[in-house]
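ok so heres the complex, two chains, lmk if somethin looks off
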Amino acid sequence: MSTDTSSFVDQLLRHAEAVEGCLEGLLGPDVQSGEIGRPPRLIAAMRHGALGGGKRLRPFLTAAAARLFGIAGEAPLRAGAAIELVHCYSLVHDDLPAMDDDDLRRGRPTVHKAFDEATAILAGDALLTLAFEVMAAPQTHPDPAIRGELTLGLARAAGLGGMVGGQMLDLAAEGRYGETGVLAQDDIRTLQAMKTGALLTFAAEAGAIVAGADATDRARLVAYGKALGAAFQIADDMLDREADAQAMGKAVGKDAAAGKGTLVDALGIDGARRECARLVSEAEAALAPFGAKAQTLCDAAHFTVARRN
Amino acid sequence: MSTDTSSFVDQLLRHAEAVEGCLEGLLGPDVQSGEIGRPPRLIAAMRHGALGGGKRLRPFLTAAAARLFGIAGEAPLRAGAAIELVHCYSLVHDDLPAMDDDDLRRGRPTVHKAFDEATAILAGDALLTLAFEVMAAPQTHPDPAIRGELTLGLARAAGLGGMVGGQMLDLAAEGRYGETGVLAQDDIRTLQAMKTGALLTFAAEAGAIVAGADATDRARLVAYGKALGAAFQIADDMLDREADAQAMGKAVGKDAAAGKGTLVDALGIDGARRECARLVSEAEAALAPFGAKAQTLCDAAHFTVARRN
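and the predicted structre for the whole thing:
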């Protein structure tokens, strides 16, 4: 399938605005009432960590997956926003001095730099908790069984066997805990499937869940999300190698400096490009049964490996 | 109502064992498989933070509240365990160097002392996430609407308007962010209702939710929980004043050193004792419609203010 990149990017940007509006509502004026019960410093830090940036790729995947089944509107938007809140919390915590110690994120100071460490820890905790509050709320879907599946899936993608576990493995791969700094290729794939793949995969699956899709169709979205997630991470590693600091808006070359192995090290730049192309084809193949309706999601897979930041 | 303290403590200890067993199952051998997908260091840190200590008062309240409506077994036990996981996560994060900087908790090294700061941040994140996974799982209750209410209530008690918000206010009350160190009595009450009250209140309410109780009975448990939570915190502040480090198993007198006002400062020791007694009566009054069935919960309120650690 071919990709009309500019019209895809338009779609992505338009949806990112809708996500921003949803997040603004969740972290907005009525929350910022300034009473003692709503600590303004914490809310400001949550807003710093969650608003005003990012492609909002995960919520886009949720919305595009739901549209495969003819579902649009508030339900996929809120489910996607909840997933984005988990993504944002993980960035806030991963940037902390005790973790990756990053000063910049999307060209702006990280939350612990703009505020302080304690505030950043609490803002991350609050964003994570808010994600579950949003997902479990009746406004997200009238059917409590569907809200329950969304909540459970989000918790699994975020927890021990997903993002948190992946970040722990990533720290260990730096040799912090006495282990060697170089992982086998399979271990790199497992680590990345957890750290970044689990939430991207769930973002795609969540669209099917919101739409009440059957198990077969859910499995198709999961297969698509897994391939897209793996391609995303390799593309990220290539960007980390190639891009200059300005284009990324964050410190680059850190993985290399930390001595961590990536698939780009293991496969070489050309091999990594081929692996990306293979994964994009795999993502497209998973959606073949949906035919032309899946074009947007296929475009998203192409975009993921072609993006420059 | 009178209190048979020793038989109440027996009940509390017996239930704490059941909670320990449940948490052990959630963080146990099949989770600790040692594959790369289940980072053993993270699991060890989660176990350190969640197992082997504590009165498990919150799960006890959930179980005792459910028994008011004739409900016992797995549902209230799992709901209580999920609440306890949130309590444990909050201790792990509050102890961090950037927050309260505590080296000891229940007489043992805190998680960041036994492991390291990054691991403690991640273990807290993982315990919080696991709490939602447990609450949302079908094993907790067959009715998805009830699981949904439990999940939503837990998120509200834990988040911005609950524990996280309360901890932020507590840090601000230390004068970290340029504000004055002394709070008005009403502000102390608000802070404590959020920081410790919200989860204790929800623990009691969760028992009613699990049992499918109506709104009137839920409101009674909420009123009970609010009074008990307020009494709990004043008792804690009195212990902080009086107890020696050995009996508490943690550093004492820290609140005084940090210059934070507590209700004990505002009311004096005698006034604080009277306030505790008033709150216990208020807790009992809220449950009066249940008659003798509420004895265990009334005992719990008395225990809360009489405990020595």
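quick notes: Residues 20 and 191 of chain A are 30 Å apart (CA to CA). thats all i got rn
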